[in-house]
Amino acid sequence: MNRSDFEILRGLDGKYIDDDIEFRASPETGPNLSFDKIVIYNRIGYKIFLNGTYSPRIKKITYNFVLKGLGPICRVDVNGTFHKDKGRTHKHEVINEGDPQRNLPEAIARPDLEGKTPREVWKIICKEAKIEHRGEFKEPT
Amino acid sequence: MIDCNIIKNIQKSSVITACDSVDERLIRLQTVFMYPEGSYIDVFLGMDNSSTGGYYLTDMGQTFSYLADLHISVYKNPKNRNLAEQICNLLKVHEENGELFIHIREDFSDAGDAVFRLSQACIRIADFCYTEKISPFSYQKKSVKEFFVTGDLDGNQLLELMNIIWERLDKLTFEIANLRSEKDYIMKNNLLS
Q1: Do residues A15 and A40 touch, judged by C-beta distance below 8 A?
Q2: To pair with A62 at 20 to 30 A between CA atoms, which of A72, B63, B76, B151?
Q3: Is the CB of B71 less than 8 angstroms away from the CB of A28?
């Protein structure tokens, strides 16, 4: 996948999610709450999955989109680890071919997302990526 | 209460580049070490809640979460689980429910060493991403070609080819289901009119 493919996919109308999103405790993510394997349906037929993590204590939020067979294609981090010179709140995207296999090394700063709740961040992502979430979003506590 | 003044001695080593407070009992230390995609590893210094008191250093589960974003499981993959245990044993790092941590002495005499050990554990476990095949497509074509040209595969090669075919069938089934959903969506929303 190159940048052009990513932009086409991001701009594609008609993407939707049927499932509820609920952050739960997991034996594998320590003090963090997470969800996994949310399917994003799309007209092209790509197998895209969403997973997310929320750390209640440090208020860190991650939404991660993965194209099966390729790797991550987009990831939003709020108050996460400091990425190069883009700060702790940033968005990773496919910029160069091969980025998914390298876990998206490039990012853009997103200070507009700082201080927002998981639900608020999710709404912004859905609007920007043209995703209709038909299920319920359960705000983590 | 704990604040960033407490780590002045550790900061002298230049391994810690920034410190900020999470709450009264936890501070976040940004290190010079990086996860594979270029983000700096954070370690957190906390005050222990137990009756013995003391301090601890932890990654707050961020390393296992890093792998989870790549759909790589440490717990569910026996190879990864075994490797993680070996790494933790060697570096004297504890792991519990996906969180890596080290107890620190109250005088902080071992804190600098602990930062190095915990960071090293984070790096080595995050490096599991290099051993996982994210994109199988590069070897699929070669294997299929070998089968049809030579007609001669050993047991392991045949098993690998069967797995590839099974995965493609799985993808095809999903695509058919998607097309059906697409058709239902169009019909339901009367998009053809």
Answers
A1: yes
A2: B76
A3: no
B65-116 pLDDT tens trace: 999 888 888 988 889 999 999 999 999 999 999 999 999 988 888 988 999 9
Strand order in the sheet with B94-96: B16-23, B26-34, B40-47, B55-58, B99-104, B94-96
Q: Residues 6 or more apart from B119 whose CB is under 8 A from it?
A: B15, B31, B33, B41, B43
Would an 8 Å CB–CB cutoff place A57 in contact with chain B? yes
Which residues does chain B have within 8 Å of residue A81's beta carbon, measured at their own beta carbons? 35, 39-42, 62
Range of the domain at A14: 3-138
Closest residue, chain B, to A42 (C-alpha): B178
Contact A103 B39 (CB under 8 A): no
- Name which of A27, A31, A49 is nearest B60 (Cβ-Cβ): A31
Specify the pTM: 0.78
State chain B's maximal CA–CA distance in angstroms.
76
Q: pLDDT tens across A27-64, in order?
A: 888 899 999 999 999 998 889 999 999 999 999 999 99
User: Which residue type occupies A129?
Assistant: A
φ, ψ dihedrals at A90, nearest 5°? -160, 170
How distant is the Cα of B5 from the closest Cα of chain A, in angstroms? 20
| ipTM field | 0.89
Number of independent structural domains in chain A? 1
Chain A residue with minimum CA distance to B27: A58
Q: In sequence order, what E strands does chain A have? A: 15-17, 21-22, 24-25, 33-40, 48-55, 60-67, 71-78, 90-93, 107-109, 131-133, 137-138
Query: Do residues B137 and A67 lie in contact, with contact meaning Cβ atoms separated by under 8 Å?
Result: no
CA angle B54, B55, B61 (to 5 degrees): 140
Q: B-chain residues within 8 Å CB-CB of A45? A: 174-175, 178-179
Tokens, residue B111: 């804190």
| Integer Cα distance of A39 and A51 in angstroms | 9
Q: Distance between CA atoms of A102 and A125, rounded to whole angstroms?
A: 22
Cross-chain Cβ contact B135/A31 below 8 Å:
no
DSSP H or E stretch at residue B17: strand B16-23
